[in-house]
Amino acid sequence: MTGTFFGNFDLASLSIWMFWAFFAVLVYYLQRENMREGYPLESDDSSESANQGPFPLPEAKTFNLPHGRGEVTVPNGKPEGRDLALRRTNAANGYPMEPTGDPMVDGVGPASWAPRRDVPELDGQGHPKIIPMVAAESFHVSAGRDPRGMPVAAGDNAVVGKISDMWIDEAEQMVRYLEIELDPQFGEGKRLVPLTMARIRADRVTVSSIFGEHFNNVPRNASERQVTMLEEEKICGYYGGGTLYASVQRSEPLL
Fold it and tell me: Is residue 3's pLDDT more than 80?
């Protein structure tokens, strides 16, 4: 052989340009895959946004859900379908929206929730992840205070009931919710409170985000032995919204 294979061709330059081309295609692909949920974009008032970004929506793809829960196709082009109890404070986007009703009940602002499926979250074996401890014989309190039987004090110091049970995440082996049995003057039946929104004291459990008058409107879970993903969203949103909306004083400036 009397000549070189590529002559004076720069293989290093070819390699770097091939890398940049591959990287650009990868970014384009990942960005489009990221747009399967939450798109097309919406404005604050739930109308379709005029600016949808530089990337087109990906082609619809159907996924088979585990444990016989059917299938889901995304993107499906369907809007959320909620009539939010909010009104604009300014014609331009980005300004605060003002609630028109009871924001904690309506699920807006800090009390907002996502429309997750109204079915329980499952573990790897297809069993509901979150169940009351009364239904889990293999679980017991091994450390710390057992709150069952303790009175529950609201943010206004009203004692609204007592802790009747704890709801555990079997897969993660941790407590997710406390179950409150309400006294008749504050409501009827039982309600769940996320453990992160409660504080277990020496003689009581305190829930500071809402007041006694609000406990009757805490969203209920339909079943006594399980809670759905949608119910979890609404319950957590209600308590979270109370940190701002429980009283007028909380929504006013501190200074």
Answer: no
Contact 121, 128 (CB under 8 A): yes
Cα dihedral 50, 58, 75, 40 in deg (nearest 10)? -10
118: which 2 tokens?
Answer: 């109204």
DSSP state of 5: S
Of 9, 85, 119, the C-alpha closest to 245 is: 85
Other CB atoms within 10 A of residue 130 CB: 24
Decide: 85 and 46 in contact? Cβ < 8 Å. Answer: no
Handedness of CA 52, 58, 62, 63 (dihedral sign): negative
For residues 68 and 83, give the distance between their C-alpha atoms in angstroms, rounded to a whole number.
31
The model's pLDDT over 80-116, given as tens digits with 9 standing for 90+, comes to: 667 788 888 888 877 888 899 899 999 998 999 988 9
Torsion over CA: 155, 87, 57, 69 (sign):
positive
Q: In Å, how far are 22, 106, 113, 114, 217 from 18, measured between CA atoms? A: 6, 53, 45, 42, 60
Q: Which of 241, 247, 157 is nearest to 197 (CA)?
A: 241
Q: Which domains, and CATH codes, for the chain?
A: 10-81 (4.10.540.10), 109-248 (3.90.50.10)
